[in-house]
Amino acid sequence: MNIEKIITEKKGTIVDVRSYGEFLGGNVVGSINIPLNEIPQRIEELQKLEAPLVLCCASGSRSGQAHHFLSQYGIECYNGGSWLSVNYYNSQNK
What we know:
By secondary structure, this protein is of the alpha/beta class. 38% of the residues lie in helices and 18% in strands. The protein is built from 5 helices and 4 strands. The chain has helices at 3-8, 20-24, 43-48, 61-71, 83-90, and strands at residues 13-16, 32-33, 53-57, 77-82. The longest helix has 11 residues, at 61-71. The model has no long low-confidence stretch (mean pLDDT 96).
């Protein structure tokens, strides 16, 4: 599925995997913050979120790591890359 379409049509859940401090400095409206280092301990919580998950961070590196990890648990997720890109798509009215 097209990540841009998932975001603009408000499907699934946007999960920001940056640190809590980074998230407080700016984030996508409606996104939730689960820092990358907390993902293994919060797998059950992630499994209960509305899929697909669109993962984002500062550059796409940490969200890529999260994507790889969560995919091994059968969680439908996509690496959305930078939270700024995800935020741009999220602000589009379609």
